[in-house]
Write a structure and sequence with these properties.
By secondary structure, the protein is of the alpha/beta class. Helices cover about 40% and strands about 15% of the residues. The relative contact order is 0.10.
């Protein structure tokens, strides 16, 4: 009898570090790991996409294209390299026309990418079918990802008051279940029909419990002819048990991380999966000796990322090839397998939690479980709130996520919707802290989501809420004909060079205009300084007289949240009308317009593009 084999997609260099360390692993760390990865034998390595293009420019001042090229060259084709793409949103936060999608896919494949995992945050198939077609035509492997999510918890209604209410009041009917097994199977079947060569059940929030895996995985396997991949996270406490259940029910590819980057808000550790597979007689298609060498270096890398480490506590050292498990722990693995086969979920979870507790992995995060959010979203919210010096709002913001999600059409929480909903929940928490009405400051992206520009939400947004947020009750799709290509200005102060000097840099401008603008200006400035340094005459510094700042006496506009100024649309002396957008700033990766509250004349503007401001900083003074 032929041994069953399990292929592995290693997430350590992308989703693992995004979930645990807010995507702060720099190129120097990756360069140390790559020689060790060459012999690991992973079927796929996820190394790009997701938050990487944004984060490496925004926080690390590095080129995402360089990262992809360096990894591709080091791996020499020994593992397929994959990236995560948000369908029509690519790696950004707004929909893009097909010309931008095709340009990015073409450049990515040219630079060494093999597999593009494509999903849509709304599970709107219209947003993924063109990407699947393009990847196939360009010679890549399209991986269609169906975003797993759950129906919201039933809201508690007040009991009817009074005799007549009790006599004639109608009993509330249970809401129709939207996210059934059939819902996900039909999405997967459609993606395969469009040309997807792999189908992933993408459980970005770790909410698929083992019993649900036992129900849905056989249906996916029966409905599809292409390999099925399972992606989950351990945040709420299901990840390890659900992965075991997926193996028992025939999953072809499993997403894992290596020990020190596994568990917690990330995917399960491959070492624990290996122990289970050894007992099941399933061959894990990976070189575990090479994995051990990577594991040792990852411990050092994690120490270097301690400033961004959510868990802080490292799991206990463990090598499944050489370390003998205590009898009682070994028995827990056997018990988990037996309970999984019996579909006894509670006992299965107890055994897996005991295994994770023994090795020192984080306990289930009940706050995340109740709020139904992905680990990457949670880690990003923590990092952003820390930057805003508003950590005290985390619990309130987390509790508001289900409400914001329902109001916005029951969207699955995966980037970009997770970031949009998460930042809006923070904004609503700030509104309540200040005594303002909910949604006093909707981000531009939240407005676009509610308007319909991201696609059709699983449940229609109510006309009343859409009008409240957008000013119109009518759903309006994104009009690709109105897409405006970003400017590529000539930098006269740097010798007349273009801001983006080639196609790949211009694609960054198209994808992430604000972040790429700052990143590319710094590159051109460095090049200009280096080129002119030899011929630059030494000049004495000109001393400027200190200016005495005039006190503020007129009405002002202040920043509702701290952030970075993106654009200033007016200047001192300009007259503005009520509703005019005076400036736009970015907070928690979302853009927010600051509008005039009444007709007025601007006396002073206190900020300029790229400047970082704090919450309630004075932005504008009026006469």
């Amino acid at each position: 009898m032929q041994t069953r084999k399990l292929k592995i997609r290693d997430l350590t260099l992308r989703d693992g570090q995004q979930s645990l360390f807010a995507t702060r692993m720099n190129q120097a760390c990756i360069d140390r790991l790559l020689p060790l990865y060459e012999d690991a034998g992973f079927y796929i390595m996820e190394v790009w996409g997701g938050a990487v293009p944004d984060s490496v420019m925004r926080y690390l001042d590095e080129s995402p294209w360089d990262r992809l090229r360096i990894i591709s060259k080091a791996m020499k084709g020994k593992s397929l390299l994959s990236a995560l793409s948000r369908g029509r949103n690519l790696f950004g936060y707004v929909p893009y026309p097909d010309t931008v999608l095709e340009g990015f896919y073409k450049e990515a494949i040219k630079n060494g990418l093999n597999v593009m995992r494509i999903f849509d945050a709304l599970n709107d198939l219209d947003n993924v079918k063109e990407s699947i077609r393009m990847i196939n035509e360009l010679g890549g492997i399209p991986d269609g990802a169906v975003c797993y999510t759950v129906d919201p918890k039933d809201e508690v209604n007040e009991k009817p008051k009074g005799f007549l209410s009790k006599l004639f009041g109608k009993k509330a009917e249970a809401p129709e279940k939207i996210f059934t097994d059939e819902y996900f199977v039909e999405k997967a079947r459609a993606m395969e029909a469009y040309g997807a060569k792999i189908i992933t059940l993408k459980d970005m929030a770790g909410l698929v419990n083992p019993a649900r895996v036992a129900s849905i995985m056989p249906k996916l396997k029966n409905a599809l002819t292409v390999p099925v991949d399972f992606h989950t996270h351990c945040t709420p406490g299901y990840g390890l048990a659900s992965s075991l259940m997926a193996i028992l029910h025939g999953v072809d590819i499993l997403d894992t991380n290596i020990w020190y980057f596994g568990g917690g808000s990330a995917a399960p550790a491959i070492e624990l999966i290996y122990v289970f597979c050894q007992k099941l007689g399933v061959e894990v298609e990976a070189n575990m000796e090479a994995v051990g060498r990577i594991r040792k270096e990852l411990k050092n890398v994690r120490m270097e990322l301690k400033a961004f480490d959510l868990g802080k506590k490292f799991p206990n050292d463990f090598d499944p090839l050489t370390d003998k498990l205590p009898a009682e722990i070994d028995a827990l693995f056997d018990k988990a397998i037996a309970e999984a086969k019996a579909n006894n979920e509670e006992a299965l979870l107890d055994a897996c939690h005991a295994i994770e507790d023994y090795f020192g992995f984080p306990k289930p995060n009940l706050l995340v479980k109740d709020a139904e959010v992905p680990g990457g979203m949670y880690s990003n919210m923590v990092a952003q709130l820390k930057a805003l010096q508003a950590e005290d709002l985390l619990d309130d913001a987390m509790r508001l996520i289900p409400k914001v999600r329902r109001d916005a059409g029951l969207v699955p929480l995966v980037t970009p919707t997770s970031q949009i909903v998460g930042s809006q929940a923070v904004s609503v928490a700030l509104d309540r802290k200040k005594g303002n009405p909910d949604y006093s400051n909707p981000s531009n992206q939240f407005i676009s989501l509610v308007k319909g520009e991201y696609g059709h939400t699983p449940v229609p947004v109510t006309a009343e809420f859409r009008e409240k947020i957008t000013g119109s009750p009518v759903e309006k799709a994104y009009d690709v004909t109105k897409y405006k290509k970003p400017e590529n200005p000539t930098l006269d102060d740097m010798g007349g060079v273009k801001l983006a000097k080639n196609d790949e840099e211009y694609l960054l401008l198209e994808l992430l205009p604000s972040v790429a603008n700052t990143f590319l200006r710094k590159r051109r400035s460095e090049e200009w300084e280096k080129a002119s340094e030899a011929n630059k005459p030494k000049q004495e510094a000109v001393k400027e007289e200190a200016k005495v700042e005039e006190p503020i006496t007129g009405p002002t506009l202040v920043a509702p949240m701290g952030g970075r100024i993106i654009a200033v649309n007016f200047k001192a002396g300009d007259k503005v009308k009520k509703g005019d957008t005076i400036l736009t700033y970015e907070a928690m990766k979302m853009e927010n317009d600051v509008q005039a509250e009444h007709d007025a004349t601007i006396k002073r503007i206190f900020v300029k593009p790229d400047e970082v401001v704090g919450t309630e900083a004075v932005l504008v003074e009026f006469e």
